[in-house]
Amino acid sequence: MTSSERDRWTDTHARASADVLRQLGVESGQGLARREVRRRRHRFGPNMLKESRPRTLLSIFYDQLKSLIVVLLATAAALSFVFGQWTEGLAVAVVIVINTIIGFMTEVRAIRSMEALRRLSVVTAKVRRDGMVREIPSQQLVPGDIVILDAGDIVSADLRLVSVSGLRCDESVLTGESIPVGKTVEALPNGTALSERINMAFHGTAVTSGTAEAVVVATGMATELGQIAALADQAEEPSTPLEKRLDHLTRQLVWITLLLVAVIGGVGIYGGKPPLLMIETAIALAVAAVPEGLPMVATLALARGMWRMARRNALISRLTAVETLGATTVILTDKTGTLTQNRMTVTVLGFADGDVAVTPSGFIRDGQKIEAGEHAFLREALETAVLCNNAVLAPEPDHSEGIHVIGDPMEGALLAAAGRAGIDPADLIAGWPEVREEAFDTQVRMMATVHRGEDGFRVAVKGAPEAVLASAEFVSGASGRRLLDDRDRHFWRDKAADFAGRGLRVLALATGTTGNPEGDLYRNLTFLGLVGLHDPPREDAEDAIRTCRRAGIRVVMVTGDHAATAREVADAVGLTDGRMAETRQGAQLGDISTLSEDERGQLLEVPIFARVSPGQKLALISLYQSNGAIVAMTGDGVNDAPALRKADIGIAMGMRGSQVAREAADIVLQDDAIGTLVHAIAQGRIIFNNIRKFILYLLSCNLSEIMIIGLASLSGLPLPILPLQILFLNLVTDVFPAFALGAGEGEADVMKAPPRNPGEALLPRRLWMVIVAYAAIITAATLSGFVIAIDVLQMEPGAAVTISFLTLALAQLWHVFNMRESGSGLLRNEITQNKFVWAALILCCGLVLAAVYVPVLSDILGLVPPPPAGWALAIGLSLVPFIIGQMAKTVPVRRIAAVFPVGFGNRRSQSAD
Predict the structure, then answer these.
(1) What are 227-264's pLDDT values in tens digits?
(2) Given the residues 145, 158, 334, 488, the one annotated as active site
């Protein structure tokens, strides 16, 4: 839309909706034709805001050159050239190029992967085209489209409202006002301020309640939100907690390393070693000690983990969620769709004079099939269910013979039941056109619609049984309509409890007449009966809950459904573990903040909460969090959005969840299944453990290099490993095995351990002790090889350096197998089953052999082919750290406490040792 075209529609709030429709060339009851949609899409373009430009290849490449590591390497190269050491200078320059290329390729792949993941989240819109309601990606909206809004929707374009029913929108994204704004269709004065245009719905705002029909007047960058986006520069994304931890760790290592290399360099020069050699050695040690590949590998680990989750239908919208997932201790889960299949089917209708079973073949009463058209009470109930309904049954979009529900699955089930009685929703609504709707309200817990007929107005109501019973004054029975007395109310409450006790979701239906369609719709109602809807438990729910229990994660059901229904489903999925579970209803909770410590403690043990309000969900989350829990909360409705934001991990339902809930959540379960959530938690643990593993591996290898040079310098020995050799090992043994560890699939029993402490440092003290212990063992093996080569095998210093180089290189490669979990199998574990580890080892072994036997490379590195005795010495000593590490993984901790750090090798510690 050009600026002139946009100016044409800036005053739509000042025009009557009929005028806007006429100028846009569309009828609200018909919508645009398919051909006209194509024409307008070509003219106006896709309905998208201008996306933040993805990082260019040049900027990613430049970032590789900005690090302190590259500065240190460049300084080493420059000093080499100054002192005439051209070979060393060129070698360091080659290392800079190789490191930069590896970092560049890794970051490009990870960034592009995460950008692709973000594009998986698609906002949809319900539109009327060619007279039919359909659901489309919001990017396909064009000016003139007729959009249908329901509570929980995200408004996907600027709209002029045509008809509304209790519509309220949260416009804080535009105006900063957090209180939802009530909407109307009346024209407003020209020039009305944006925040007061109550006959408009704006792109990016959220429908908090009510329903409406509206026409699109602006899309993409022509919307009010688009204009704001055009004025603002794209803000840089803040660092995640994990990124901050890694950055803090790297800074610490830089300063510690600079101090160490300064001391080692000074001691070496004081001991008579050539200044240039010690300067190059000091800089090479600084590079070796600081794991420059750490951010790259961390990004790769996060990207691969997110892709694994996406393949299992868990879409991560915030990177912070990945880190928090592994620490989750409590899951507050809804019932419908998460523990159940969300395949609503009406199975029984309860009336005053008996129940009617609803089967695929028809209606059964007292064992006999009946025709709905011959029983006025049955047809009236089904018509009420159709009239008080916003769902649409549409053909499957893949052109199969099935149908799918556009809207609430429960309302779709009511339409399907009415269809078995031969009731066509379109024909019924044509005979009883809707003139008003009172949208469902979580406080009132009912919905009502008003329909015009030849003799007046008909009211259709559905809602929670207790709410409808409280509003009804009459009841329909075998003898006709009569007053609803206390005995009747007791009867219907018992019947509702009986339905709920069978695991059915229960609705009540009522009808009435009114002479004033704008009056109170919940007066003079006649109670018609109950509807029992069956939603079978998910097949994977019981296994998922059992897995959570083993993992130390508590699962608590928090639902707005009837207590008996909740308890029946909880028993079916194993939530109660075969025990007589306590169930608390919202009415019993009161103000949780005023409870005593004992009462709060008792509440923490309750596994089922029913008839819970949105405010009570917030209070329950706060209760668990104040007790030290890390809370994951599932939700689907617009009223769940505050709770999803309040929880440590907000989880929205992708299939039945409102767009508001999906926007508020950290994770979207695209199949709504709790099993998917449990898999995501497992992946969160695996990602964090993988990051710890490669940090542990990198630091122990790099520290061993520092210790080897430091001890040799302090003891007066010749340098057992030269600067260029350190750089080569840093490139070979750091990068590829670390990548392999970061890409690992993780251990199979990761969900058999308790959650980690979320406040625990990335590298707690016990892991620093492990790093030092491993580095010391590798150092001892390398220096032993060097000394034996000189004193026992009588090798020249140059040949002895080759032995120490090979010992260190191979020891670091075998060291990757020490990263397996304690107690895991020696031959079969998460490291030996990682195909990337074996690929890295094969590649690295080939490079090590090339360093010794390829003439040009061996000359640059100062290596000579060793004799068989030298190879035997290097291989034998390189296996020592591997053997000791494997013993530490296998022998009980108490038996090795005297020689190995306490806490290492304990699976329950959740370390990644």
Answers:
(1) 766 654 343 444 556 666 766 776 677 677 677 777 77
(2) 334
